[in-house]
Amino acid sequence: MTLSPTSRLIPASALPRSTPADSPKIRPYQTTIGLTLCAVLLASWFAIHVSAIFFLDINFSTLPLAPLITVFQCWLTVGLFILAHDAMHGSLAPGRTRLNAVIGGFILFVYAGFAWKKIRDAHFAHHDAPGTPADPDFYADDPENFWPWFGTFFSRYFGWRSVAFVSTVVTFYLVILDASVTNVVLFYGLPSLLSSLQLFYFGTYRPHRHEESGTFADAHNTRSSEFGYVASLFSCFHFGYHHEHHLAPWTPWWALPHTRQS
C-alpha cells in the first residue's frame, strides 16, 4: 500500500515526554484521576490474581466462573500495561517524572519482568518513526498479516529476562506456595498470553497495518477504531483511538474519547 501523508509528522523527540505540571495541556485533576484509576486497576488485578490462584477451588460448581475470571483478568492485565504506557508519556502524574518512572517500572516488572528504560525507549522509537522500518513495533516485511507480525513483536520484547521472571514466579507459586497448576495456568498464564494478543491486535496491528483500500491520514501512519465508548474501553482501554494518541501522546488513556470527539 502506498502511504499518502497529508500532514507533517512531529516526532516524539519534539513532543513533551513528561508534561510539566503547569502545562496548559494538563486536564483538571489529571494526577488525582490518573492515580486513583491506577490504584483501582492495580488493586483489582492483585485481588483477583491472589484469590483466583490461591483460594478458588475449581470444581463442578465453580467451573463456569473460571472463563469469566480469566477474561476479566486478561482485561485488567491489558489495563496494567496501559497504565505503564501513560507513565512513559508522563500523563499518569504530569510533572512528576520520578513518580511516573517508579509506578511504570513496577507495573512493567509485574507484567512480565520488563525493564522500564528498555520498553520506554522502544516506545519512544515507535513514536519517532511509526509504521516504518525504523519502528521497533512495526513489521515492514509483511505489514498486512497478523501472525508473522505478532511473532516478531512478541519475540522482540519477551526475551530471556521475561522467561526468567515468569519461570521464577510460576516455580514459587507451585513449589513454595503450593498453588494448583490448573489455577496458575487459568488465572496467570492465560491472562498474560491473551493480554499480549489483545494489546497487539487493538493497539498495534489494527492501527498500523497496511490495507489495500485507503491510506493513512498523515505520516503518523496510524488510524483509529470506530468503536463506541464501551467497546473502546473493553477492547483496549481506548488505545484503539490510536491516531489521537499519536497526535497528542500526553493525553491519558481515560481522556482519549474526549480528544476524539473534539
Automatic annotation (TrEMBL):
Residue intervals passing through the bilayer: 33-56, 63-85, 97-116, 158-177, 183-202
All copies of domain Fatty acid desaturase, residue ranges: 66-161, 162-259
Family annotation (InterPro entries): FA_desaturase_dom (IPR005804)
Residues annotated as signal peptide: none
Keywords carried by this UniProt record: Membrane, Transmembrane, Transmembrane helix
Biological process according to GO: lipid metabolic process
Name of the protein: Beta-carotene ketolase
Native source organism of the sequence: Fulvimarina pelagi
Highest taxon, organism lineage: Bacteria
